[in-house]
Specification:
Elements lengths: L10 H18 L5 E4 L8 E4 L1 H7 L1 H9 L9 E2 L4 H13 L9 H11 L2 H13 L6 H10 L3 H9 L5 H4 L3 H4 L3 H8 L9 H14 L1 H4 L3 H5 L9 H16 L3 H4 L17 E9 L8 E6 L4 E4 L9 E7 L3 E6 L3 E7 L6 E5 L10 E2 L2 E5 L2 E5 L2 E2 L5 E2 L3 E5 L4 E5 L10 E5 L2 E5 L2 E3 L2 E2 L3 E5 L4 E4 L11 E4 L5 E4 L2 E2 L3 E2 L3 E5 L4 E5 L6 E2 L2 E5 L2 E5 L2 E2 L10 E6 L4 E8 L8 E7 L3
Parallel strand pairs: 1-3
Antiparallel strand pairs: 1-2, 4-5, 4-36, 5-6, 7-8, 8-9, 9-10, 11-14, 12-13, 13-16, 14-15, 16-17, 18-19, 19-22, 20-21, 22-23, 24-25, 25-28, 26-27, 28-29, 30-33, 31-32, 32-34, 34-35
Helix pairs in contact: 2-3, 4-5, 5-6, 7-8
Amino acid sequence: MSKRSADQPSHSCLAVEFLRGLHELQSTGDLCDVKLKSNEGESAVVISCHRNVLSVHSLYFRSLFKWKKGKDSSQPELLDFDGPTLNELVHYAYTLDMSLNDDNVADILVAAQFLQMDGAIGHCCNYYETHMRLSNCLTVHALATMYQNPSLAAAALATIHPHFLRWAQSQDFLRMEAQQLAALIASDEVEVNSEDEVLEAVLRWLDYDRPGRLLQVPTVLQSIRAPFLSAQSRLQYDLALESAAAGMVDELAGGIQNNNNTTQRHSVGAHEVMFCVNVYDADSKGTAVQVFDPSIPAVWDLKKLSLPADISSVVMLDGRWMMISSAIHGWKIVQRNRRFTGLVEEWGPPVAGMHTWRVSGAPAALDDRVYVAGGYDLKRSQLILSTMEVYDFPSNSWRTLADLPVPLTGLVMVAHDGLLYAFGGSIAIGNVSNLVHAYHPADNTWSRLADMPMARDSFAACVGPDGWIYVVGGRASDLGVCARVEAYNPVTNKWLRKGDLVHPRKDLACACLGGELYVLGGYVSGTENDPNHDSIEVYDAEADRWTLHECRLLAPNLGFACVKMKLKRA
């Protein structure tokens, strides 16, 4: 057998050249033997093509051209698609590439299914899988079901799993088909606190159109885990089944059965906890991971992870993915495991690099996107930045947004009620700020709000159980490390002084867990030989007083990165 010489082109290179040559011929109309016409009447698009090229990609065209062999082919083949859709499919036939977006992918998928173009169908399905959102998942599920693509249908419903309780309050939920809803709540991955919440959502769905849905109730209720319902919910469950049976003929009513599925959903039993990364530990060299769960209460170690030792921030994305920022390694992603007991062993897909390599920027997650504002640029003599970028997980891309009104580093950004609130930070070294701005994602603008009573950086902030945003601790230019706490009311745009922390501290963490405010760790002023504290404080709103919690971190922290997530102890 003869061997191909080293300088002889490979088969793949020849195939690319062959396609490129055919595309050039098609673009100029040379040697074309068929015309395709879109469905737009007088403004229809007519495209010249080669029958053999179309037949390679489409079973429809292959059968059509075989049937028309030897017949008059002077008239264009009229197809019931618009011009842009037809153009994209022809372009794919010659290049194996398409320009897909949220506006055209559904039309192209429908056309590709009609033409039986498996390659184009695969491109569309891949696009949906990587651009799945709550806003389009029902459309994707309907298309996937119609065209018998079970993996895409499952991926569409999986998009809802971590957001089920929020989804259940939407109009899209109320308009779900019975089969869609049954398939959704059949999964162990649906995130709820109890099975009662699933039943409550189903009954609300039923009441939206009780006359039209009564006969479909058994189909949906079969996916409820009846053994895990409370006594009161079990009574509602049985009444719903009885109401459905009363409206059925005897043969159908006799087929109704309770669902005795004794497998608990994975999320039941999970609590809101603080996931603390980069807590100093001599053995882990700065990569220890601890969990604070006030419901037990306890602090425990998770299995050591190969995390970078220079973590600067952590953000939860989509309820399942944790994005970790490192000054040296950029952003990385790790996933919470399916049973809510920790993180998976492997890192997730690589995260695209930001447009600006920044440190000490303020991250926040809103509507399943991660926003990062301010910080300083390591590549330009630590230039303080005003730029903001947003990360879109499905497309793995960063996009530049409207700049902060003022360049800031060391600020804190909090997501609340559809807006992002940016507090404080430093305008220059030693020049701390009391500025507050709100970012409006709908129109990509910033607005100025009431200033903080005290300028500070290196502090923490979070939304409290009363809907106010609490700003705690940090470093003030005149006071140094402080214990001061102030609360901002987003409704009235006013500030209120709250009780001070027990210990002054900066670089701390704060979170609202189970309806209570907690602060953890941080640099504590006035302690000898132990500036990095292991104490936890809890806020008593009625008494307006902070007290030391019975739990302590397992080790003092040095550079704290924390995020709130749902976990249960393994």
